[in-house]
Specification:
Blueprint: H1 16-25, H2 33-48, E1 57-64, E2 87-89, E3 96-98, H3 102-105, E4 111-118, H4 124-133, H5 146-154, E5 164-167, E6 184-186, H6 204-244, H7 259-265, H8 269-282, E7 287-293, H9 301-325, E8 332-337, E9 341-342, E10 354-355, E11 359-364, E12 372-374, E13 376-377, E14 384-386, E15 389-390, H10 391-401, E16 409-412, E17 415-418
Parallel strand pairs: 1-7, 1-8, 4-12, 4-15, 5-6, 5-7
Antiparallel strand pairs: 2-3, 4-11, 8-11, 9-10, 13-14, 16-17
């Protein structure tokens, strides 16, 4: 039975929901057979490796440092704050994106952009935690990030592949959801995974024997109050062994992709990381975060942002096309965001400083309403003219799109915690 990636060119594939609908209506017919083979092949492979294919998946493109909204999703060409950046007409009438997004402008019909995100966090660390986790940082609670939430609620935590993979960047832990929901970090998507092969002179049998010795030592340590640390360490070792021995490890091998495909995503680590995200999603990983750093443009904002957009634009656009072609876009929510925006007023050295007052988030797929721009800012981009959106509202919307019960309660220490901040309400403009 062929894997989906090996199906004959031009073979149509269907989502699980489409297949069920067609089969229920009796309209499947002979044309459905290759797609049914495709879906069953994925499920058969996943089940043989102990992995559940999630109904909903997440790819987060994280722009570390805070991207300028005026050079990306909310340009103000010809104004005192707009700088040299021009606007570019999109395939949605009346909607401008920055000239830095020539490929994404042609795919605006698949995009939903919130131009009026707002928060009070202008510090990198606190803002990063807020926008990753959906809660204002609290030193007494270890909140999980969005990827960990999706992995925990939609993923297979005991599968061969990690439920949540992060490409580049410093990870945020699974918090109160546990180490099983924490990201597996890949520092270089174009190379081998570090420290994953057996040590020289050690085979599976010898490693099993070493594990037995560690278990004996751990039992003694657990008796002295170290049970949480023992359980966490054992869980990580089990995850590593499953991945070391898995046939699905080939999902990380970008050499299996055509050169034209790799080139379309971009030759840099970010573009290749986004391609890796698509491969991992296909093989059963539920959440992938790909980090593109360098957006903290206090100096030389316009040139630096242009170079970063030259990486982001082709990777994001190709990902949309690729997921759509493989009929994965409807069930895969792609989110592109950073921790805040940049000041409308241009600082010395052609820079822009931190600005949580109004910033942008872009989305595609996952059931989000394409061709949608939520909120407007004033002519200079200094104030929100209408429809401010808080981070809690964004996370409530993520939960709805990803079919996650945001009201589910967990306990962090002694206090009950909702998975998603109950203060946030869904943004209806983003739903079909």
């Amino acid at each position: 039975m062929m894997l989906p990636s090996a199906l004959p060119p031009g073979t149509r594939t269907f989502s699980r929901r489409e297949l069920l609908s067609l089969l229920a209506s009796g309209a499947a017919g002979a044309a459905l057979a290759p797609s049914l083979v495709s879906l069953l092949a994925r499920d058969a492979l996943a089940q043989s490796q102990g992995t559940k294919l999630a109904d909903k998946r997440l790819i987060l493109l994280w722009l570390e440092g805070g991207p300028s909204q005026l050079e990306t999703w909310d340009p103000k060409p010809g104004t005192a704050t707009g700088g040299p950046t021009k606007g570019l007409a999109t395939d949605v009438p009346g909607w401008l994106l920055s000239e830095n997004f020539p490929s994404l402008a042609k795919r605006a019909g698949d995009l939903a952009v919130v131009r009026t995100m707002t928060s009070k966090e202008g510090n990198h660390s606190r803002a990063r935690a807020l926008v990753h986790c959906g809660y204002t940082p609290n030193p007494t609670v270890a909140y999980p990030s969005l990827g960990s939430i999706v992995a925990h609620e939609q993923g297979a935590l005991e599968g061969d592949l990690p439920a949540f993979v992060q490409v580049n960047g410093a990870p945020i832990s699974g918090g109160y959801l546990g180490i099983e929901s924490s990201p597996f970090v890949v520092n270089d998507p174009t190379g081998k995974i570090e420290n994953l092969s057996y040590p020289r002179g050690v085979n599976e049998r010898r490693l099993d024997q070493r594990e037995q010795i560690v278990d004996v030592l751990d039992r003694e340590f657990a008796k002295r109050g170290g049970t949480p640390a023992v359980d966490a360490n054992k869980s990580e070792r089990k995850r590593a062994r499953r991945l070391m021995d898995s046939k699905l490890l080939a999902a990380f091998d970008l050499e299996q992709e055509k050169e034209a495909t790799r080139s379309a995503y971009g030759a840099g680590k970010f573009g290749q990381g986004v391609l890796l995200a698509r491969r991992l999603i296909e093989h059963g990983v539920t959440a992938v975060e790909v980090v593109l750093s360098g957006w903290d443009t206090h100096q030389d904002n316009f040139n630096r942002t242009k170079k970063l957009c030259d990486e982001l634009d082709p990777a994001f656009a190709t990902l949309i096309d690729d997921l759509k072609r493989r009929h994965l876009l409807d069930d895969t929510l792609v989110v592109c965001m950073g921790e805040f925006g940049r000041t409308p007023d241009i600082a010395g050295g052609d820079g822009r400083n931190h600005w949580p007052g109004n910033w942008c988030v872009a989305m595609a797929g996952g059931g989000v309403k394409g061709g949608t721009a939520v909120g407007t800012t004033d002519e200079l981009g200094k104030k929100i003219a209408d429809r401010p959106v808080a981070v809690a509202e964004l996370f409530a919307t993520f939960a709805r799109l990803l079919e996650i019960d945001g009201g589910k309660e967990f306990h962090a220490g002694l206090r009950p915690i909702h998975l998603v901040d109950p203060a946030g309400k869904v943004v209806p403009e983003l739903l079909p």
